[in-house]
Amino acid sequence: MTTSIPSPTVGAFDLGPLTLRAYALCILAGIVLAVWLTGRRLAARGYESGVVLDVAAYAVVAGIVGGRLYHVVSTPGPYFGEGGDLSAALRIWEGGLGIWGAISLGALGAWVGCRRAGIPFLVFADAAAPGVAFAQALGRWGNWFNNELYGGPTDAPWGLVIHEWDQSAARAVTDAAGDPVVLGTFQPTFLYESVFLVVLGVLLLLAGRWRRWAPGQVFGLYVAGYPLGRVVIERMRTDEAEMVLGQRLNVWTSIGVFLLGVWILWFTGRRARRAPDPGATADAPDEAGDEPTAEPSEDADETPPRSQDVG
């Protein structure tokens, strides 16, 4: 073993009386990136970019709640098991957000936000899909700071050094000499997933250059695409997980979400064929890497966009 990927020995930083958790900062950085990119893509579709903040106020809060609920339910031991601490379920800054719950409730929150902001949900979902993938990629680096979610032992040059970790203090445990205790070198599954998500996000950005998509289909590509990588990475992980029929719960969830994504692709395409929507696409790609759309149809449940050129 001549090289390896180091891991931090400290996962929190003190700024006077304020303690900043690196995990939380990675999540926040991902949210900022997703909001910015979604705003650009909405503007290319004829909507005010600022409307994304109105929707994000609902989506982000609902997503964090959903992510934490899924984590607690799918990993009940630390909260409901012997010696568990239920109050720890509230300490989100220590890590532990289940992406499936975050996507589910986050999408519900976005739907509510879209209704209140007067923007079609499928248009917003298509605009947000690449940014969500990039946000997940950034968020995974929070696991690196927390020395968590790694695979089996490895002697590959890209192996990840993992320390024995004190979660409450957000730092590595030290030995009598004051040196961090090293557990070993393991597969960096957080890095594999982060790289996969960047690739997925780029493909979603480029999707509009390859063909015309019905409203909601780019979102369907994200929903179907993410589980393809996640199911492989999930089988590599060694952290504690609920087992169902010999497989980790998240493997079965990934399969279910993939099928949901395929259904979204089929349903939104069928819906567009039955009632063609002039707001599905436009001719030229936008600066964010996807083709802009024209004005969406003025269905009873969809409010036309607010023009950026008024006045």
UniProtKB/TrEMBL annotation:
<keyword id="KW-1133">Transmembrane helix</keyword>
<feature type="transmembrane region" description="Helical">
    <location>
        <begin position="20"/>
        <end position="39"/>
    </location>
</feature>
<feature type="transmembrane region" description="Helical">
    <location>
        <begin position="51"/>
        <end position="70"/>
    </location>
</feature>
<dbReference type="GO" id="GO:0008961">
    <property type="term" value="F:phosphatidylglycerol-prolipoprotein diacylglyceryl transferase activity"/>
</dbReference>
<dbReference type="InterPro" id="IPR001640">
    <property type="entry name" value="Lgt"/>
</dbReference>
<protein>
    <recommendedName>
        <fullName>Phosphatidylglycerol--prolipoprotein diacylglyceryl transferase</fullName>
        <ecNumber>2.5.1.145</ecNumber>
    </recommendedName>
</protein>
<feature type="transmembrane region" description="Helical">
    <location>
        <begin position="249"/>
        <end position="267"/>
    </location>
</feature>
<comment type="function">
    <text>Catalyzes the transfer of the diacylglyceryl group from phosphatidylglycerol to the sulfhydryl group of the N-terminal cysteine of a prolipoprotein, the first step in the formation of mature lipoproteins.</text>
</comment>
<keyword id="KW-0472">Membrane</keyword>
<feature type="transmembrane region" description="Helical">
    <location>
        <begin position="189"/>
        <end position="206"/>
    </location>
</feature>
<feature type="binding site">
    <location>
        <position position="140"/>
    </location>
    <ligand>
        <name>a 1,2-diacyl-sn-glycero-3-phospho-(1'-sn-glycerol)</name>
    </ligand>
</feature>
<feature type="compositionally biased region" description="Acidic residues">
    <location>
        <begin position="284"/>
        <end position="302"/>
    </location>
</feature>
<keyword id="KW-0328">Glycosyltransferase</keyword>
<comment type="similarity">
    <text>Belongs to the Lgt family.</text>
</comment>
<keyword id="KW-0812">Transmembrane</keyword>
<dbReference type="GO" id="GO:0005886">
    <property type="term" value="C:plasma membrane"/>
</dbReference>
<feature type="transmembrane region" description="Helical">
    <location>
        <begin position="119"/>
        <end position="139"/>
    </location>
</feature>
<feature type="region of interest" description="Disordered">
    <location>
        <begin position="273"/>
        <end position="311"/>
    </location>
</feature>
<dbReference type="GO" id="GO:0042158">
    <property type="term" value="P:lipoprotein biosynthetic process"/>
</dbReference>
<feature type="transmembrane region" description="Helical">
    <location>
        <begin position="213"/>
        <end position="229"/>
    </location>
</feature>
<comment type="pathway">
    <text>Protein modification; lipoprotein biosynthesis (diacylglyceryl transfer).</text>
</comment>
<keyword id="KW-0808">Transferase</keyword>
<feature type="transmembrane region" description="Helical">
    <location>
        <begin position="90"/>
        <end position="112"/>
    </location>
</feature>
<keyword id="KW-1003">Cell membrane</keyword>
<dbReference type="Pfam" id="PF01790">
    <property type="entry name" value="LGT"/>
</dbReference>
